[in-house]
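Moderator note: this is an archived Q&A kept for reference. The question asked for a predicted structure of one protein chain; the sequence and the answer are reproduced below.
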Amino acid sequence: MTATHPAPITKRRRWRAFFADRKGATAVEFALIGAPFIALLLAIIQTFLVFFAQQLLEQVVNQASRAILTGQAQAQSMTKAQFANAVCSNVVILFDCQGLMIDVQVASAWSSANTGMPTLTYDAQGNVSNTWQYSPGNQGDIVVVRVMYLWPVYLGPLGFNLANQSNGSRLIMASTAFMNEAFVNS
């Protein structure tokens, strides 16, 4: 009786067996597709948060500006800090109220109303050093209200970046321009 031994496994047979084995194919495919998929999800979430914050800031500025438009702010001699509190009372969830920059100006004509994004300047500590005005105007004045906030953004995977400032944050701004209604000055 002779014992039969299996044929010796050659290198070629090992490679064929390795390539024919499909046990780890799903794990390898997920490893190849998983990272870009997660990067895409993070980019979508970050973009959503920036646009959501922008829209919320727009709504809050429109609501708070009604106090100036109708003369309530002028009648109450509302200060810049009080107006900032009125703005901040509606955005406590997403924004740090200390980071809100509020600029209220009277324009001499509609063509000179500045509703554009300002250029920010920074001090040595990286804090915004711009000086903002607070002039709610009188009845019939054209008033521009701009509220700005430096939204922190994080460098996304695959180089996705929403920052538009040198410090790596995104300046979001909401502005509204209106002519004050007729109201009685106190």
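Archived answer notes: The radius of gyration is 30 Å.
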